[in-house]
Amino acid sequence: MAFDSLRDFLSSLEHMGELKHIKAEVEPVHELGAIAYHSLIKKGPALVFENIKGYRTPLVTNVLSTDRKVAVALGVEGTMQNMFEKFLSGFKNPMVPVEVKGGPCKEEIYKDDAVDITKFPTPVWHEKDAGPYLGTFHGCITRDRATGDQNMGMYRLLVKDKKTLWMSIHRDGLAHYRQYEAANEPMPMAVAIGMEPLLCIAAMSPISSGLARHAEFAYVGGLRGKPVDLTKCETLDMLVPAQAEIVLEGEVLPKVRVDEGPHGESHGFYGGEKEGLVFQVRCVTHRKNPIHQGLICNFMEDGGKRITRSAVLWGKLKSLGTPGVVDVRFPDPGCGREICVVSADIKEPGQVMQIVETVWGVNAMGPNWIIVVDADADLDDWNDIWWRMYSRTEPHRDVWITPPRQHGGHQPLVKHGFTSRIAIDATSKFKGVEFPEINTVSRELTQKVLSRWAELGLE
């Protein structure tokens, strides 16, 4: 089913037992983030913090933190390939959004001196963050100065005062900013917080502006099978999701740079932005009794990033007819893009290297690491992957390391945008050895016993 709002999605999660209301008082500085992270790594439910010290507004997090929750958002069941196909359907059948008058995001409107973004619960998510980050799981909506076409990206937002946020910006949003800065004009920007989950996924995904007008919204329309409702801002000539919980309207100042951060990142380190930008908020609109939404960023993170990136690569490899490819996975460690595992049915010598070269060919800036395993591997089980790497790989023969080349990664060891790459052949074919049968529980039997887990009292 398609969800029109975050609230609709949370209601569905609650019905499934995948949402937990935290009623005990929680500190917004460090404690909330730590609770969210440890629940995340335990594959826990979405969390609604209802009693955040110093605030009346609740905050929800971990809404897309497991494959099951992502599948619910997509409205699919079954294998990961079913989810991949669903993700790709948004590219195949984009639907341009429709403009509506008003919407729930307009129930309360505050302008100029009435603006106060500090009223929303804003955690200091990590212990060494520069401060409270209001924007961690949201959509920053910018507009091409020449065409008026809108883009939506996810760029972190650090609170500095009641009307000011510092931000890190990249990709299409940065390209738009440079257009306005070249004309010495502030860039109009709106921020939508508390959107239906597919809009959040689109905001963090690499979606080409050439897909359709207002590409991210058109992509989500294709996923849902119905267009996204957008409504006009109060102070900007821009459109925002009508069902959002909170909308900030304002402008990004030209020719002003700040030292934004540090902020905990998914590559496992703290990062900052020496060329951060300044966003001045002129208007805030929101629902009555809004729900704030945020994300804890660490080795694992909310948002389904690994699934979207895996789906895109899987689709590219299938469209190119890459022989033998069965499944693809970008695991959470590695920012969901630096490490790639491919399972394949290997039929002839040289096939593994063909797969590796194809992956690098369609992903010019990554991944840094590629591991190729046999078709029977469980790509979501790193015990299985590590076992195959040790038991089926001779380093002198099955590991290839390239000379340094251009790369867009975030690892501290990457110098000046250049680094080497590594590919590991952890398959069993054409190694000069007849491997014994694997001692494992079959997928069929695994599915049978897991289907009885609740009946056995093991959940």
Largest sheet features: 10 strands, antiparallel
**Helical residue percent band:** 25-40%
SS elements, strand count: 24
Distance between the termini: 26 Å
CATH topology of the largest domain: Pnp Oxidase, Chain A
Domains (count) = 2
Tally of alpha and pi helices: 12
SS-based class: alpha+beta
* The CATH homologous superfamily of the largest domain: Electron Transport, Fmn-binding Protein, Chain A
Overall pLDDT metric: 91
Query: What is the C-level CATH assignment of the largest domain?
Result: Mainly Beta
Quote the beta fraction.
25-35%
What is the architecture of the largest domain at the second tier of CATH? Roll
Poorly predicted runs are: none
